[in-house]
Amino acid sequence: MARISSKQINKDKAGVFFMATLLLWLVSVLFEILFNKRKELLLIVSGACFYQIANWVIRFLVSRDPLFVNTSVSLLHSTITSASVVFILVNQSLRSGLNGMFEHLELVGAKWLWAYPALCFSCGYFAYDQLDMLVYGLYSSLIPAILVHHLLLLVCFTLALYRNVTINYLILTLICELHSIILHVRKVRRMAGIRDAKSRIVRVEWILNWITFFLARLASHILITIKLIRDASKFEKGIELPLALFGMAGMNMLNIFLGIDLYNAFRREKNPQQMSNHHHRE
């Protein structure tokens, strides 16, 4: 019998842990819907079903490659969510103006029009995507960053949805999906075999990648964290502030790792021969 590698053992352990946490999350959501009569949370289930159906359609019509299918559905989610967030922010600014839109009470206790349904629907996607990656093994290592990211979002999103607090704050965090669009486009482009770093499409993609990374992801999450810290004294005693700070600390840390990965990927695409020779010398 072939010896099972330690890498595979770690991957299996991670799979068991994250599958267990996903099942616990599902039980929690179903309990809220069925026993606490929270019918509005059915949009979480609807979101998960919508993206699973999209998965099946792409698998049937385009490709059966699990990574391609997963990335295509992720691109669909990023596009829908980005459009939703922009629509919610523009609609709110037109309805009530920018004055007071980002005040503490507005961000914590109020709900912008369509913000709650949008957050539910996006929450459903993260549950779907977590399951899809676990089923097809689209992760690596004992602590996969992408699975940690999804677990972090599921915990923060569902607790906020249960308690009807910080909904607007979480909508603001989803601005980062503008950058996710470019990330998913890059993966699809590479899987399609377009890898010439000198081509115009790749150059434009990298420009958009860096702009959206710094503005829509890194800067927006840092500003949200600063806002939370400045308004810390305005929060009532409870779980809201610690959970929000913990969630944003996790997001900022993952953003730093993502930035390092992007930089390394940029270097590899810009100087493929040089990077190849460097690895051979090592």
Description:
- With about 280 residues, the chain is mostly helical.
- It is built from 11 helices and no strands.
- It is globular, with a radius of gyration of 20 Å.
- This is TLC domain-containing protein 2.
Layout of secondary structure:
Blueprint: H1 6-34, H2 42-61, H3 66-96, H4 104-108, H5 115-136, H6 145-163, H7 167-173, H8 177-191, H9 200-230, H10 240-270, H11 272-281
Helix pairs in contact: 1-5, 1-6, 2-3, 2-5, 3-5, 3-8, 5-6, 5-7, 6-10, 8-9, 9-10, 10-11
Protein name: TLC domain-containing protein 2
Organism: Melia azedarach
Q: What would a concise description of this structure say?
A:
With 282 residues, the chain is mostly helical.
Gross morphology is globular
Q: Summarize the amount of helix as a percent range.
A: over 70%
Instruction: Determine the mean pLDDT.
Output: 91
Query: The biggest beta sheet, please?
Result: none
Please identify the structural class as seen in this structure. mainly alpha
| Content of β-strand | under 5%
* Rg result: 20 Å
Count the E strands.
0
Distance between the termini: 32 Å
List low-pLDDT spans: 275-282
From N to C, what is the helix and strand string?
Answer: HHHHHHHHHHH
Number of helices, counting only DSSP H or I runs of 4 residues or more: 11
